[in-house]
Specification:
Blueprint (H helix, E strand, L loop, with lengths): L9 H34 L10 H7 L11 E9 L2 E8 L12 E4 L6 H13 L12 H30 L8 H22 L3 H6 L1 H21 L7 H30 L5 H27 L5 H21 L5 E3 H14 L5 H7 L13 E3 L3 H4 L3 H7 L8 E6 L4 E6 L5 H22 L13 H4 L6 H25 L3 E6 L9
Parallel strand pairs: 4-8, 5-7
Antiparallel strand pairs: 1-2, 2-3, 6-7
Helix pairs in contact: 4-7, 4-9, 4-10, 5-8, 7-8, 7-10, 8-9, 11-15, 15-17
Protein name: Protein root UVB sensitive 6
Pfam families: RUS6_N, UVB_sens_C, UVB_sens_prot
Organism: Tripterygium wilfordii
Length: 507
């Protein structure tokens, strides 16, 4: 038997490989196409009918009666404040859109009446994009502002009622024309006081919080004087004039400080929106307070007790309102907080911390500040020898710092070339010298833990003023740059200082 030849021929092998390759390629193409179709089907959203069934469409009010059975075609989709619509139109027999056939189809059920009311109220009391369009301090500020206006509106009812009854006491002894003249004189005096106080305009920028709280104190003082007219009706005109002057000065303060405060809350170019919504909140609270006070006044409560309670609520709300404002600039009060913290702990407080620690009760018109920036030469130096001794220490600086023992104050004199940074450095140097003097006068000097970054090594041990000034110059040269960089890291705007120096300059 002949052996079987198992070795395939060359031609058959080639044909077999070609057939297998073709089959493998077809299989790969088939698998690839199947996967592509499956992926498209999985990612495609389910196709919803553009038109609801007739009865359902009528019940939901999605389309009008004449379009229920129409062939509507989708044009585009729209979203407003989280609500979505589809715009559809009808086509004629030629496949062209019919004119004026666009209709809107809501993709959700109509909002409940309470939701509509909430949206309506929000459009009046909060800025667009809230809360992302304002800083976090906006909410507590507006809360306390609303409470302040609530108490203010409530007090307005009692003060107006008192004024009207007081001016009518002498009705039987004077004509109605005289009563009208008294009222006009009262309002005129208030306007004159408003104009005279407007010259303090620069202080509204430098000491914004202090001026704002002072204005609210004046507002309460004016309200108290108005209530006093009920006890002294024969002094109606002088008392009413004084009260109106105080209240108009307070109004100037409130108006002048309003925009900088709202500017601190606005994150973008929405200062107008923030201002409008803030004033709307104040007016709403004022109306609520007025309505409540009218109901209370019908029960004839004790005037003194009612005024005391409302006044306490007003002043507490005013204080918390001002304290909640977070400003980025450094006025004298915030600068003192920042420098004192840096010199004692080596760190600059954050914006929130610095604004909270700012002293609101330091009224701008008081002259008890231990550091005087930009004074007259005659106030800083009484002895010519003192000037001659310290003048060489500041030859390369655009300011001078000295201490007057007779007045217990540090004076930072400015030269005519002094710029914004020179004023900041002079104020920093003055606080440094003040800390030196206070520590040397204290029975227990500052502990070692209170000094970092080389502070303890530079602290002078002598009580000689000239030596302390010389040592303070060395320390300022070391620490002023560190203070500026740390303050900038915390968000303080060093280039926009509001230290309000005096106008005197040395040349």
């Amino acid at each position: 038997m002949a052996p079987i030849n198992l070795k395939p021929s060359r031609n058959s092998t080639t044909q077999t490989l070609t057939t297998a390759a073709a089959s493998s390629q077809d299989a790969r193409l088939l698998v690839r196409e199947t996967l592509r179709i499956s992926a498209n089907l999985a990612s495609s959203p389910p196709i919803a009918p553009l038109v609801s069934p007739p009865e359902e469409a009528r019940q939901l009010g999605l389309v009008e009666e004449e379009f229920v059975n129409s062939s509507l075609k989708l044009i585009c989709c729209e979203e407003i404040d989280g609500r979505r619509w589809k715009y559809v139109a009808d086509k004629d027999s030629a496949g062209r859109f019919q004119r004026n056939s666009i209709r809107a189809i809501a993709l959700q059920s109509p909002q409940a009446p309470m939701q509509d009311l909430t949206s309506f109220v929000r459009s009046y009391v909060v800025p667009e994009g809230f809360p992302d369009s304002v800083t976090p301090a906006y909410v507590p500020y507006m809360t306390w502002r609303a409470l302040k206006h609530f108490f203010g509106g409530a007090m307005g009812v009692f003060t107006t009622q008192t004024l009207l009854s007081s001016v009518g006491v002498s009705k039987n002894r004077s004509t109605s024309a005289a009563v009208a003249i008294n009222w006009i004189l009262k309002d005129g005096a208030g306007r004159v006081g408003k104009m005279l106080f407007a010259r303090q305009g620069k202080k509204f920028d430098n000491d914004l919080k202090q001026m704002r709280f002072s204005g609210d104190l004046l507002m309460e003082l004016g309200a108290g004087i108005e209530l006093a007219t009920s006890a002294f009706p024969h002094l109606f005109l002088p008392l009413a004039c004084a009260a109106n002057v105080a209240k108009n000065v307070a109004a100037v303060t409130s108006t002048s400080t309003r925009t900088p405060i709202y500017k601190a809350f606005a994150k973008g170019e929405n200062i107008g929106d923030v201002t409008a919504k803030g004033e709307c909140v104040g007016n709403i609270a004022d109306l609520l307070g007025t309505g409540l006070s009218i109901m209370i006044s019908k029960k004839n409560p004790s005037l003194v007790t009612t005024f005391a309670l409302l006044s306490c609520g007003y002043l507490l709300s005013s204080y918390q309102e001002v304290k909640s404002v977070v400003l980025h600039t450094l006025n004298r009060a915030r600068f003192s907080v920042a420098v004192d913290s840096f010199l004692k702990t080596g760190r600059v407080p954050s914006l929130q911390e610095g604004n909270i620690k700012e002293n609101i009760f330091t009224f701008p018109w008081l002259k008890d500040n231990p550091v005087v920036l930009g004074p007259r030469f005659k106030d800083a130096f009484q002895d010519p020898a003192a000037y001659v001794a310290v003048e060489p220490l500041f030859e390369k600086e655009r300011y001078m710092v000295t201490y007057n023992p007779s007045k217990s104050k540090v004076y930072a004199l400015l030269k005519d070339q002094a710029k914004s940074d020179d004023i900041l450095k002079a104020a920093f140097h003055a606080h440094m010298l003040l800390l030196f003097i206070q520590s040397s006068n204290a029975s227990h000097p500052l502990s070692q833990k209170q000094w970092e970054y080389g502070h303890s090594n530079l602290f002078p041990e002598t009580t000689d003023i000239e030596a302390q000034i010389a040592e303070s110059c060395k320390m300022v040269a070391t620490l002023y740059g560190i203070f500026k960089s740390k303050a900038a890291e915390q968000g303080w705007r060093m280039s926009e200082s509001l230290l309000n120096p005096g106008r005197a300059r040395l040349y």
